[in-house]
Amino acid sequence: MNREERFRKSGNKGESKVKQWISENGYENCYYSNAILRYLGFIEKNASTEIDGLLVLENAILVFEIKNWNKISRYDAIRDIYHVRINVYDRKLKSPKEQNRKHIEIINKLLRIPIEYLVNVCVIITDDGSDKIWVHVENDYNNHQHLIRFDQIKSVVDYYKSKKNNLFERDEYIKRIEMANWGGIQEYIDNHKQYAIYREKCKKEGVKAYGFYKCDICGNQLVLGKKDGFYAKCTGYPKVCSKKTIPIAKIEDYVVNNEEEIAERLIKNMTEMEYKKRIEEYNNRISIFEERIKNLNIYIESKEKELFLIDEELEKKRFFEERRLLKQEVEEIKIEVSKIQEENSDKDEIIRDKDNIINKLNNEINHQKELYQKTIDFKMRKIVARLLNR
Ligand SMILES: [Zn+2]
User: Fold this and answer.
1) How many domains does the chain have?
2) Can you give the residue range of the structural domain that contains 171?
3) What's the predicted TM-score (pTM) here?
4) pLDDT of residue 262
């Protein structure tokens, strides 16, 4: 681990501690930690600034700068410098107020959030409790400037929580922060780290321009160039602009002061560009998903067909079995019937006999009737003859 990494690690420890306080006190839904705001900068075309924490209350936004130092051994009140130790290295560090003031300025310009709603909250944390002795606590409530120890966060938050202001457009500010915040995405975290290193290097070489600059001819962004020393160049050159170089000493003549224009030119274009990129990525992912879903549907369809065939097969087998059982039953009944028939085979004969007897009897009756009639007829004729012969 090199020196820079050690400092960063120590800083992360402080940020985590504040983050924990935020969630324990129910503010996690309106707290943005390690927000990275990207804009079209000067030192590099794509610049960024990292804000340790943004707490959006009902009527104020607290901008946190969090320092975690192992130990403070002295505070130089005249120069506002802390003598600190971070992971075995001794350092003299300026109070973070000024650094955070720059963050606030960028938030104000890029996100067009009025400066009076932005509260500068620097929190100095130490591992050994030396903050209790050395942190020069400042609570300037009128100018919204605070430099505090960790245990004082609550009182500052409580104060701004109770503030009232009808002009505070909370939803709009949250929307702008969320649009412009690229923290939490590794690509931009890495870019920011590289940018911060390069900016420090430029600073050491005497380039301290952090404003937003534009060309007076074409209105394009000005960026830093280096060839036998630093200079400014127009990004429109040579395509749309004839302005090639501007001496770095004159850069402040090109600064953009109009806040609307800064926000419009810088963050909006940047954000739209990034969102377009992201939308394209999502669209690609969606088309991949759609393709997969299509293939899955085809697969499901084929499986359903298979299932249907299996079902049909099963159905057939079931009917075959029923048929077999039915057939068997029918066979059994047939056997039963034939058995019964066999047992009753003389029945017909009996019936036939009976019929014969009945027929014979009927014939006899008819015969007797006939005989009787003949006798009567004969006797009648006899009687008639005797009567006539008289
Ligand atoms: Zn130009």
Assistant:
1) 1
2) 3-269
3) 0.67
4) 74
